[in-house]
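Lab meeting notes turned into a lecture example. A postdoc, R.K., suggested we walk through two folding results consecutively so the class can see how the record format repeats. The first protein's sequence and structure tokens come next.
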Amino acid sequence: MHDVTGVILAGGESRRFGGVNKAFQRLGGVTMMDRVYAAVKSVCGKVVIVTNSPLDYLRWDAALVTDKFGFRGSLVGIHAGLAVAEGDYAFVTACDTPFLKKGVIEMVTGSIDDSIDIVVPEKGKWVEPLCAVYSKRCLKVIEEQLGRGELVIKSIYGKLRVKKISEKQIRTVDPCLVSFVNVNTKQELETAESLLASGNSSLTVG
């Protein structure tokens, strides 16, 4: 078993949410941040929350860290969380994935190989870089890319050793792939609320 720190990115500006912090929006009476934190904490002993408003997150048992670069983006957040992670690996996700399943986190973190830098699930032809494990060996490559002002996460993949977990494998623990559902707008929150109210068992955290 590897020591994996859970990293939750909560530093977005929520512009598509009207400037309201989506991490604190409730879904089924529970904030999205609480839902994601519970899933991550159930697998990872230590949790880091990356945020530019740390005082808003004091009630969670987590280390709080802010971005180190003068611009924002998920890759900047990955760098900030990975840099302070305990151990050599971090599982990274975002605060707007309220249906993230414990089983998916366990599958991704359980696929760590010391010869691999990144473990990432596949969905169709794409990968899910915000439901992935990153080794601290990624830091130098990330820093170099950010130094050039390049913010696309997947651009680092060609420079590192990557293990992909097939969609077929992921579906064995998350048949509907709900772990990859992002809630970025109020309309998407309403849709997620309707799905949750339907009693769909695939939306449980386990």
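The second example is placed directly after the first for contrast:
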Amino acid sequence: MTSSDTPDNASTGHTGVAAMDWSAASADPQYRAAVVDLLGALAYGELAAFERLAEDAKLAPTLADKAELAKMASAEFHHFERLRDRLAEIGEEPTLAMDPFVAAYDGFHKQTAPSDWLEGLVKAYVGDSIASDFYREVAARLDADTRALVLAVLDDTGHGGFAVEKVRAAIDAEPRVGGRLALWARRLMGEALSQSQRVVADRDALSTMLVGGVADGFDLAEVGRMFSRITEAHTKRMAALGLAA
């Protein structure tokens, strides 16, 4: 999108940075740093998701399930490529942009390694959805070009519906499984929120974006409301799985 075809505020409801395109918004060095951090975090998250889904495919009980996970892993890698290419396009080294987030993501995945196929499905559904909710909240305050890219790479790869179908079928067949998976999902929720908060706290540009220094309209109270909305969405997804939040 160019400056000439950027929607005006009246037609979109966007103000400040969110009403600009990248060429205008990136003139602010602090905003640019925040976007580089955001794209770096997203890119490594997609790469890690690709690796995790490829690993989870090994636990799949049938060839059809294995093929389905392989297809989803491929979609995650395509998302990673789009983010990597965008970083290069704006003059940033993708690996350097991703590097600050490697420890947080790898730590999360190490602490939440699934013990079986069903735990892997719940982790992908719950963990990925929480991350997507967080990034969608942030996207509302981004420039038009970056917002479009972020929303595009958050498109559902199909894992949500697949996980719901398989988990509900497993619970129907063996109701006791539900209690174990509910505890597992609660643990994932706590770990995912803690990870998100740590990442934001460790990166000055990102934290400034969220509390209002860069992204218009956010304040500390709004950050609290944002995490409340993420928690509410998690509760609805748990119900879709047939699990208690």
